[in-house]
Design brief:
The chain is of the alpha/beta class and 426 residues long. It contains ten helices and 18 strands.
């Protein structure tokens, strides 16, 4: 007994004094009657709504709900009483697309949201985006002009980030002109040798980066880049100040002027990152892939389309795809340039085509792993499916229906495993 008491005392000392916060006691679940959430055009999708507290149905709960095609709900109701905490709904679509039921429960002054998005023949979804006649010439010239300048690489060891097996550096190199540089975190296995490589491209925003040490520890070179032309190892407060001072809404810059669009230097810089990887003596000269989520999904498509050295790509809930479909009153990709714009500026529509992931996806030739969620409210599943449907290269589709604009752990693990397989590390 004395030994047991001592053991319990030690466990108590090792247990954190603060409690972890995880999830909500009140949960709104919306579930379809098809396990894969998919239906044929014209078929009826039946949804069941449950509002639960402590795992049991909540009586007399006040809810709002909206239902209809994603981003264009046809039905909106407020302050509906659910006597027994349940509700049923039926929806359908007459053409390929996604139908969403979103329910918000109001309980004790707080809102709790649940949603479910059903796909109707999503394999038949096609984008509306048109391709400029000079698309290839435009990007070919952009890269040709940038490559007139030497990379002039700089590399600084970050000792506090290094591990027994991986050396970690902050690096930079010339982008599209000598005064414009790309910064990133390079991770290289300590053991001398030749290695495959992975380029990690970022989602939208302004932030520091830590690099992909884990993948490097498995036997790969990894390079995670920022896109804004300044160091990626500064204190977080510096990036917050930059965002608020000058970087807010950078994705809106010069949409009507393709040659001055903010993303021109971004796309070029991402391809120059492949140039940098190719210059490393540790690269094996064979496998080099690119992967990213959201804005990084778009950049993955762009790099794979523009650089034949890329041997695999893995875009996740890829943003910046099929803007133009909004002109047909259908769900469009982030940043939703033309959503609910009755009379769009056609110069902006034409300019956006040079920066639409659809037009890059059409040019991808290497194997890819494509993953997204049906409940994504930032990147609609229709635009992500449009990308997948136009890719003619070998492709793998991995759907995690319940995810929004985030990852599940299982999705992350599958992504990592696929990347390692492509680099022959599994």
């Amino acid at each position: 007994m004395r030994k047991i008491l001592i053991l319990l005392a030690l466990v108590a000392l090792l247990t954190p004094a603060h409690a972890q916060i995880r999830g909500n006691n009140i949960v709104v679940s919306v579930t379809p009657d098809h396990k894969d959430w998919n239906y044929a055009i014209g078929e009826k999708a039946h949804f069941v709504v449950n509002v639960r507290k402590s795992g049991t149905l909540l009586d007399n709960v006040d809810v709002d709900y909206e239902a209809g095609p994603v981003m264009y709900p046809e039905v909106t109701k407020t302050h509906v009483k659910l006597a027994d905490g349940t509700m049923k709904w039926t929806g359908t679509m007459k053409e390929p697309g996604f139908y969403r039921l979103k329910v918000t429960a109001h309980v004790d002054g707080k809102d709790y949201v649940g949603l479910c998005t059903a796909g109707f023949s999503p394999e038949k979804i096609q984008p509306a985006t048109q391709c400029p006649a000079d698309f290839d010439e435009f990007w070919g010239n952009a890269l040709k002009d940038a490559r007139k300048y030497a990379l002039d690489p700089h590399k600084t060891l970050l000792p506090d980030r290094c591990t027994e097996n991986v050396n970690v550096y902050e690096v930079s190199f010339v982008n599209n002109k000598p005064s414009s540089r790309i910064y990133g975190i390079l991770c290289v296995p300590v053991k001398p040798g030749k290695y495959p490589a992975l380029l990690r491209v970022p989602g939208a925003g302004v932030r520091p980066y830590s690099g992909d040490v884990y993948t490097a520890s498995q036997g790969a070179i990894t390079l995670e880049i920022g896109i804004h032309g300044f160091s990626v190892t500064l204190p977080l407060s510096v990036y917050v100040d930059m965002r608020d001072a000058c970087m807010e809404g950078y994705w809106e810059s010069n949409l009507d002027q393709p040659d001055k669009n903010f993303y021109k230097r971004v796309v070029v810089g991402a391809v120059r990152a492949v140039d940098y990887i190719a210059s490393l003596p540790e690269w094996n000269g064979n496998e080099v892939g690119v992967s990213g989520a959201s804005q990084g999904g778009f950049l993955s498509l762009a790099v794979a389309a523009l650089d034949n050295r890329i041997t695999f790509l893995a875009p996740v809930h890829d943003a910046m795809c099929d803007y133009e479909v909004a002109l047909k009153k259908k769900a469009c990709g982030w940043p939703h340039y033309f959503y609910q714009v009755d009379q769009p500026d056609m110069k902006k529509v034409q300019g956006a085509r040079y920066y639409d992931g659809i037009n890059f996806a059409r040019r991808v030739k290497c194997p890819g792993w494509y993953s997204f969620g049906y409940n994504d409210e930032v990147v609609p599943p229709s635009s992500a499916y449009s990308v997948y449907n136009v890719v003619n290269a070998p492709k793998t589709l991995s759907i995690y229906q319940m995810t929004g604009h985030y990852w599940y752990q299982e999705q992350w693990d599958e992504w990592e495993e696929w990347l390692l397989q492509q680099m022959h590390l599994r």
